[in-house]
Design brief:
Layout lengths: L5 H8 L2 E2 L2 H12 L2 E7 L3 H6 L3 E2 L7 E7 L2 H15 L5 E2 L4 E4 L7 E4 L1 E5 L2 E15 L4 H5 L1 H16 L4 E12 L5 H8 L3 E3 L1 H14 L3 H9 L10 E10 L2 E8 L1 H7 E2 L20 H12 L8 E5 L7 E7 L6 E7 L6 E5 L1 H6 L11 E7 L3 H12 L7 H12 L5 H18 L20 H10 L6 E2 L2 E2 L16 H26 L1 H5 L8 H20 L9 H20 L3 H8 L6 H16 L6 H9 L2 H30 L3 H4 L1 H20 L15 H10 L15 H5 L10 H4 L1 H14 L10 H7 L6
Parallel strand pairs: 9-10, 10-11, 14-18, 15-19
Antiparallel strand pairs: 1-5, 2-4, 3-4, 6-7, 8-9, 12-13, 12-17, 13-19, 15-18, 16-17, 20-21
Helix pairs in contact: 2-4, 8-9, 14-15, 15-16, 15-17, 16-19, 17-20, 19-20, 19-22, 20-22, 24-27, 24-30, 24-31
C-alpha cells in the first residue's frame, strides 16, 4: 500500500526537476539579488509605486523592472544555489513543495528546498531575519520533528525509491541560536543538521576553494559518523607503535579516502570540534596538483590521518610478526563511514585526485593513527607545517589559545589568553565586533594581528618572557599576576577585558555611528584597531595611576572612568578639517599604527591637558619645528667639526699619503660621490663635481678615530692633540675604556638619522636629544 496517493505523488514529482537547462535558468534567477519581470509600458507607473525600479534598456513593448528580494526569499534562493553549486542536479523549482508526513490532510509540511543526488535527499527548512535578532522558540516545531521525519521518509521512498540517505537541515540567517541551546539539542536528537550563518559562510568558502570537490567535505559535515555502506574497506597494512600511540601504514585509493575523509578547518562552522587547525585549500595550488597527477606525477610522502573510532571500530587482523621487530603485518578493516578519517596532513594531495582520472586506479601511502584528540592532531599539524609553507599570522594567532592555554610557560599562556580574547570579541553575537575579525580561515573586515599586537602593547595584558613577567608591564593590566590559579585568572581577565573593550566599541557604534560604520576609517580598520585599543590601554593606565581603577575594577566602572576621553577623541574626529583627515588616513606602512595612536592621544590631550603620557610628550617635541631647527644646526656643526678635525689630524700623521692610509674608506666615499653625481644629473641639475671628502659617514669618522686613537706624529709638535685627547667625552656611558669614551659618536649617529629624515615627523629630536648635542666637542 502506498503512503501517498498516485495523483499527489505525481504532483510532487512535477515540482522538482532534473532538467539541466531548466536548472541552469533557475540558478541564474535565484543567484540574482533582485526579482525581475517585464511588464507592459502602461503598467510601469503602478509597479514603480509598489517598490519596483526600471533597469536596462526598454524593450519594444515592455519595460524591464526589478525589486530586491525580501530576506526570506533571498535566503531560500541562496541555499538552493549553494546546493546547486555542490553538484545537486535534482531540485525543487517552486516554493510550494508540500510533503505529507501522515495520512490526514493537515499532516503536511511545506519544504523550502529539496535536493536529490544519487542516494542522498536533503530537506531544508529556512528561517531568517532581515537584521540580527534573537531567535524565537522552536520548541513545538522540534518536538514534533521526529514524527514528521518518519513520515517524510516514507513519502520520499515512494517518490525517489528505497535506500536513500535523508537529512533534514534547519537553516537560519541572522538569528541568534546557540548550538548549545535547548532548541538545537532537540534538533540534534532527531539526527538533523543545524545550518547557521557560520555554516553557510563555511560552505561558501569550500565551494570557492575546492570547486567541484567541495561536496566531499560537505557530505562529511552533514553525515559525520554515518555509514556510506555496510561493507568495510579492507587494505593490507603494517601495525606499529610510536610515542605510545598505535598507527597503521597502508595504501588506499583516493576516491575512498575522499568519501570518508574530514578536514578540521579552523572556521566558526567547526566550533564544536575545537581545537581545529586546518587551512582551506589554495585553489590555484589544487589545480596545479591535479594537473601534476594527470601528467603522471606522484607524491611519495604519506598522508597523515587520524581514525575516529567512537562510533565505528577499526579491525586489524594480524598475519605475521617478524622476529626482529615489534611491528606486524595484516589486514586493516576500515568502517566505510563519513568523516571517520581526519586528514591531519596531505589535504592538497588527497583533493588533487578529486578531479583526476586516477582517483580510482592510483593508491596513495597513508600513516594513520587512531583516536588522537584534537589537541594531539593540532600538535602534529604544527610540527609538520612549521618547516613547510608558513601558517598564516591569523591562523597562528587563532591556534594559540588551543596550543598554549595550559602551558607551563608564562609567555605562552599570555599568547593563549590574547588569542582567546580576540575570539571572544569576534564571536559575541550582540557585540559590536561580531564577525568583524578574521578568525582562522574565516575572512572579515579586520585582521587578528593588530588586536594581538595592541593587547600586549596597550598594557591591558602584562608582557612576559619565559616564566617571568616583565617588570612594570602588569602595573595597569587587568590580569592579576599574583593569582597562581592560572586558568581561573585567565578566564576572569579574558571576560573583564572583552566586556571592557566591547563597551568602548559599543560607545562608538551607539553615539558616533558615522565613524563606526565608515569603511577603513579611524576605528573599524586595521590601523585604527591598534591605535584605538592602545589608546584605551593608555587611558586605563592614566586612571590607574590616579587610583581610580585597579585590576579588580568592574568593566562598567572602568569604562565610566575613560568615557569622557573617548568622547573627546570622537567629537574631534568628527570635526577634523578635510586636509588633516587626508593626511592621517594617508599614513601607511609599519609606522602608521603608532602615528595614529599619537594622533589619538594628542586629540584627547587637547581637551584634557592632564592626560599627557611620556610617549606623547616625546612625540610632541619631535613635532616642534623650532626644536628641530636647533638640533639640526647643532648636528651640522658637529659634523663639520668632525670632518675638519679628523682630516687635519690624518694629514699631520701621514702627510700627503693620508688618503691612501684610509684607502678602504676613501673608495666607499668615492663610490657614494659618483652615485650622488649621477643622481643629480638624472634629476636635471646638470653635471656637478662632488668631492669624495663630502661623503664621510659618522661611522667612517668613528672607525678612523678608533684606529688611530692615541697615534702621534714623530716628532710630535707641542700643540698636537691626538684623537683620544679631543674626542674622549663622558656622555654618561662610563669613562674607562676606549669604547666607552667614544660611545657618544654612536649616539650622535643615531640622532643624526632622526633629523636626516626631515619628511617623517615621527622621527626628529626630542629635548633630551638636543641637549645631548649641546655637550659635544664643537659646543
Amino acid at each position: 500500500m502506498t503512503f501517498i496517493d498516485a495523483i499527489e505523488a505525481d504532483e510532487l514529482k512535477n515540482k522538482v526537476t532534473d532538467d539541466l537547462s531548466q536548472l541552469g535558468r533557475l540558478y541564474r534567477s535565484k543567484k540574482n539579488a533582485y526579482q525581475v519581470k517585464s511588464v507592459e509600458h502602461n503598467l510601469v507607473e503602478t509597479m514603480l509605486r509598489k517598490g519596483w525600479e526600471e533597469f536596462g534598456k526598454p524593450l519594444k513593448t515592455k519595460t524591464k523592472l526589478r525589486k530586491p528580494k525580501n530576506h526570506s526569499n533571498k535566503f531560500e534562493d541562496d541555499i538552493w544555489c549553494q546546493l546547486y553549486e555542490l553538484g545537486f542536479r535534482c531540485l525543487n523549482y517552486s516554493n510550494d513543495f508540500i510533503l505529507p508526513f501522515g495520512k490526514s490532510s493537515h499532516e503536511k509540511k511545506q519544504i523550502d528546498v529539496i535536493a536529490v543526488k544519487k542516494d542522498i535527499i536533503l530537506l531544508v527548512e529556512c528561517k531568517s531575519s532581515e537584521k540580527h535578532a534573537k531567535a524565537p522558540s522552536f520548541k513545538t516545531e522540534f518536538e514534533g520533528l521526529r514524527v514528521r521525519l518518519s513520515g517524510f521518509s516514507k513519502a520520499l521512498e515512494q517518490l525517489f525509491g528505497k535506500g536513500k540517505k535523508i537529512k533534514y537541515i534547519f537553516a537560519t540567517r541572522n538569528l541568534k541560536l546557540d548550538r548549545t541551546s535547548v532548541d538545537i539539542k532537540r534538533l540534534n536528537k532527531t539526527g538533523s543538521f543545524f545550518y547557521n550563518d557560520n555554516t553557510y559562510e563555511y560552505v561558501k568558502g569550500l565551494i570557492k576553494s575546492y570547486k567541484d570537490a567541495a561536496h566531499y567535505q560537505f557530505l562529511a559535515l552533514l553525515f559525520k559518523g554515518q555509514r556510506i555502506s555496510k561493507d568495510r574497506i579492507e587494505v593490507p597494512a603494517i601495525e606499529g607503535n610510536m610515542g605510545q600511540k598505535t598507527y597503521y601504514m597502508f595504501s588506499i585509493e583516493p576516491h575512498l579516502l575522499l568519501k570518508m575523509g574530514f578536514i578540521l578547518h579552523r572556521t566558526r562552522a567547526n566550533e564544536v570540534e575545537m581545537p581545529t587547525y586546518q587551512r582551506l585549500l589554495v585553489p590555484s595550488r589544487l589545480k596545479g596538483i591535479t594537473k601534476f597527477i594527470q601528467n603522471g606525477g606522484y607524491f611519495p610522502n604519506s598522508v597523515i590521518l587520524n581514525f575516529s573510532t567512537k562510533n565505528h571500530r577499526l579491525q586489524f587482523e594480524p598475519s605475521s610478526r617478524g622476529k626482529s621487530t615489534r611491528s606486524r603485518s595484516g589486514t586493516l578493516k576500515i568502517p566505510n563511514a563519513y568523516a571517520i578519517a581526519y586528514i591531519i596532513d596531505g589535504q592538497h594531495r588527497v583533493y588533487g585526485y578529486a578531479q583526476s582520472d586516477y582517483k580510482k586506479s592510483n593508491t596513495i601511502p597513508v600513516v594513520a593513527f587512531k583516536d588522537l584528540d584534537s589537541t594531539e592532531q593540532l600538535e602534529i599539524f604544527m610540527d609538520i607545517n612549521q618547516n613547510q609553507k608558513a601558517v598564516s599570522a591569523t591562523l597562528r594567532i587563532t591556534l594559540e589559545e588551543d596550543l598554549y592555554w595550559n602551558s607551563n610557560r608564562t609567555d605562552s599562556r599570555m599568547k593563549a589568553l590574547r588569542s582567546s580574547i580576540i575570539r571572544e570579541l569576534e564571536g559575541a553575537f550582540s557585540g559590536p565586533l561580531y564577525k568583524k575579525i578574521s578568525i582562522g580561515e574565516d575572512k572579515a573586515t579586520l585582521s587578528a594581528k593588530p588586536f594581538a599586537t595592541a593587547l600586549i602593547r596597550s598594557g591591558l595584558l602584562p608582557s612576559a618572557k619565559g616564566n617571568n613577567f616583565i617588570t612594570g608591564s602588569a602595573d595597569s593590566s587587568l590580569y592579576n599576576i599574583h593569582n597562581h590559579d592560572h586558568s581561573s585568572e585567565m578566564i576572569r581577565a579574558r571576560d573583564s577585558i572583552v566586556k571592557f573593550l566591547n563597551m568602548c566599541y559599543q560607545y562608538v557604534e551607539d553615539n558616533f555611528s558615522d565613524i563606526f560604520e565608515r569603511d577603513r576609517y579611524f576605528i573599524v580598520s586595521n590601523r585604527g584597531t591598534y591605535a584605538f585599543i592602545c589608546l584605551i590601554g593608555s587611558l586605563n593606565a592614566f586612571e590607574s595611576d590616579n587610583r581610580n581603577v585597579g585590576t579588580k575594577t568592574s568593566p562598567s566602572k572602568r569604562f565610566n572612568a575613560i568615557e569622557k576621553y573617548l568622547n573627546a577623541l570622537l567629537v574631534q574626529i568628527n570635526s577634523l578639517p578635510e586636509e588633516d583627515e587626508k593626511l592621517i588616513l594617508g599614513k601607511l606602512g609599519s609606522g602608521s599604527e603608532v602615528a595614529w595612536l599619537r594622533f589619538f592621544q594628542n586629540l584627547v590631550n587637547q581637551k584634557y591637558s592632564k592626560y599627557e603620557p611620556l610617549e606623547l610628550i616625546d612625540w610632541k617635541e619631535r613635532q616642534d619645528q623650532q626644536l628641530q631647527d636647533k638640533g639640526r644646526k647643532l648636528g651640522t656643526d658637529i659634523e663639520k667639526y668632525l670632518k675638519k678635525t679628523v682630516i687635519n689630524i690624518l694629514k699631520q700623521l701621514f702627510g700627503e699619503n693620508w688618503d691612501i692610509e684610509i684607502g678602504a674608506i676613501q673608495r666607499e666615499c668615492e663610490k657614494r660621490a659618483a652615485e650622488e653625481k649621477e643622481k643629480l644629473y638624472k634629476e636635471g641639475l646638470g653635471r656637478q663635481e662632488i668631492p669624495w671628502t663630502d661623503q664621510f659617514f659618522v661611522t667612517d669618522y668613528k672607525k678612523i678615530i678608533e684606529k688611530y686613537w692615541t697615534r702621534k706624529p714623530d716628532p710630535t709638535p707641542s700643540d698636537f692633540k691626538s684623537f683620544d685627547e679631543i674626542f674622549s667625552i663622558d656622555a654618561g656611558f662610563g669613562f674607562n675604556s676606549k669604547a666607552e669614551k667614544i660611545k657618544w659618536l654612536s649616539v650622535f649617529n643615531s640622532h643624526r638619522n632622526n633629523w636626516a629624515h626631515a619628511g617623517t615627523k615621527e622621527k626628529g629630536l626630542n629635548r633630551d636629544e638636543v641637549s645631548f648635542l649641546q655637550t659635544e666637542p664643537v659646543n
